[in-house]
Amino acid sequence: MGTEHDDDYLDQVLIGGREPTRIVVVDPDPHWADRFGALAARVRRALGEAVRIEHIGSTSVPGLAAKPIIDMLLIVEDVDDEDAFVPALVAEGFVLRVREAGHRMLRTPARDVHLHVYGEGAHEIQDYRDLRDWLRHDQADREMYAAKKRELAEREWRDMNYYAQAKDGVVALILAHARAWRTGERA
Predict the structure, then answer these.
(1) Cβ of 16: how many Cβ atoms within 10 Å?
(2) How far apart are CA 50 and CA 66, in angstroms?
(3) What distance in Å separates the CA atoms of residue 34 and residue 39, rounded to the nearest whole number?
(4) Cα gap 164→185, rounded to integer Å
(5) Lesser CB count within 10 Å: N end or C end of the chain?
C-alpha cells in the first residue's frame, strides 16, 4: 500500500510485465465473503490449517463498491522463503505475479483473486486491517472511497498498479481516520 511506482520499477517486480487495463468497479456483492471463504480453504489446503489468512480490500467491506477481485492477506514467517509457500500455492492454481522486497502477490489465472503475502511484522498488514475495519465502520469514508474508485475507473491505466497508486491520497486520509478511531480519538 502506498508505494510509488514507475514503469522501470514495475518492469523489475512484475512477473509477466505491465498489463494495460480498464478498471471496472461494481456494486457490492454479498457473495464476496463466501468466495473468500472458499479461496481461504484452498490456501489452507495448500499450506496447512495454521495459515493466517484474512479477507482485505474493498470486497471485504459490506456495502462498498469494488473491483470484482477478491483481495487476500497471507502472513508467513519469511516472505523471502518462497519455497515455503509459492510451489504449494502454484499447485493449487495460483500464479506468482509480483516479487518485491517484503511482498509477494499471487493471483488466479482468471485475475479475479489477488493473494498478497507479507512476512510477520510487516507494517502493511496493519494498514490493510485498519483500512478494512474503518471502512466497515464509517459510511462517510466508505462513500468517499467508492466515489474516488468510480472516478478513477473512468480512465485507462498502463497497469493496475497505477490505479492503486492514484488512490493513495484518499487511502492516506482514510488510514488517518482509522488510526484515530483505533486510538479512541475518533468515534
Answers:
(1) 9
(2) 29
(3) 9
(4) 28
(5) C
Nearest to 44 by CA among 12, 5, 89: 89
Tell me which amino acid residue 118 is.
Y
> Is the model's pTM score more than 0.90?
yes
Q: Which residues pair with 116 in a beta bridge?
A: 73, 105
CA 166 to chain centre: 15
For 105, residues 6+ apart whose C-beta sits below 8 A from its C-beta are: 96, 97, 98, 114, 115, 116, 117
DSSP-derived letter for residue 83 is G
Number of residues that this document lists for the chain:
187
Give one word for 160, left, alpha or beta, with left for phi > 0 and alpha for psi -120 to 50.
alpha
Chain segment 68-118, per-residue pLDDT in tens: 999 999 999 999 999 999 999 999 999 999 999 999 999 999 999 999 999
Q: Which three cell numbers stand for residue 94?
A: 495460483
What single-letter DSSP state applies at residue 94? Answer: -
86, three cell numbers: 509459492
Looking at this protein, which amino acid is placed at residue 162?
Y
Distance CA 23, CA 152 (A): 8
